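Example (one chain per record):
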Amino acid sequence: MKKVSVVVEETAKELLSLMGSNASIAVEEDKVNEAVLVKINAGEETGLLIGKHGETLYSLQTIIGMVVQKKLGEWIRIVVDVGDWREKQDERLKSLAYQIVEKTIESGQPQPIYNLTAGQRRVVHLALAESKDVITQSEGEGEDRYLVVKPKTKK
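Predicted structure:
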């Protein structure tokens, strides 16, 4: 059986080719997040492949994931990044998370963060996982799911 990263790379290249893109691809294993990272360098096509608020990027990620699952017979977590957009978004989310921590500590009240995707909630959970002052928790269901940053209770 082909190595997972080879199947992911072939799938991503085929998809981009079908889209008429000349973007280059680098695939690497992300052991920290237990995923396969697909980095796309698209030059002038970067904005097109990211889309509004990353919608095209997330769609590419979903399609690649589904095709790879079909080929390998097992689900593999795939993360697509175009022009380091995801990395920049993650940094923005972490900055927001640290601001919310300050607000939570100052007010002593839980602070909700709405309108995050599951992946964005995960970034915030991981960023604040080691905090001595707060805990994070996802609440709600489906489209109404949101994240809450709560002060840790003193023991």
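Caption: The chain has two domains: 4-83, 88-151.
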